[in-house]
Amino acid sequence: MNLRNLKYFCSAYEAGSTVAAARLCHVTQPVISNAIAQLEEELGTRLFTRQQRGLVPTPAAIRLFRLGGKLLADAQAIVETFQDVATHPRLSLHIHPTVSVAHVRKLIRHLKQTLTHLELAVLDDPQAADAQLTSQGCAAPGQAFMPLWEEQYALLVPAEHPLAVKEDLCLQDLHGVAFIERTQCELAGYWHAGLSQHQIVPDVRARVDSQEWALGLVAAGVGVTMAPLHPMLMMPGHRQEGIVVRCDLRELQGASRVVGLAYDAHASTAQENGTLAEVLRACEPWGQAVALAD
To answer: Element (H or E) spanning 110, and its range?
Structure first.
């Protein structure tokens, strides 16, 4: 089936006449009529009845318009896909749920400003993504890793919680305390081992896999949690949306993680001038700039 004939048919169907379709398609009226005639011969059925007020579609035409419209849209999408590769670089990114949305927003804004034609897709499947925004500890074995910023672990406490103002905070203070457990935390094994060693059993009120959910539940007063934060949020006594950051818990001092882009090094090498390589180059200065951001 000739796609041009199908396009002319759809134009005539929508316009209601071959004359109007010809104007829309910038061709002569006989071209539209010939296209319809060829389709009728190919399909072995009548597509329109011609009346003084224009073309009246037959049931076959209604069906062809529905199917043909989808076929034309798919064909156009194929063309645009190949055109976009050349003019609009694309990057698919998987974002680990423990990474702060605020800093993801800053990073994406930087990339869009630096690579103005970049089209970004965020995928749930890390295996299908070109790169993963994650911590170094969560990067898959063999992946290359570009560090972007470092985060320090701290105890996050609801603003009205007694631990928010307690002096000389220690691990034993968490025994029986309402706690929000971050299931994706890389430090979970170390944390639970420390609690068990001192026979400390917090009262787990929620288990979440998202950094934002953990912070939201702390701010709502559901419980405390242990989480990594950007250095700008680690100021002593810092409050953010009803949260007090306690960075003076001895067992967490010095505990940190590095967040960055994990990617297949072979793919980057094979495409030195490709989109992934461009994004990596754009990110090089950002890792230093983010530490100075407000």
So the answer is: helix 101-114
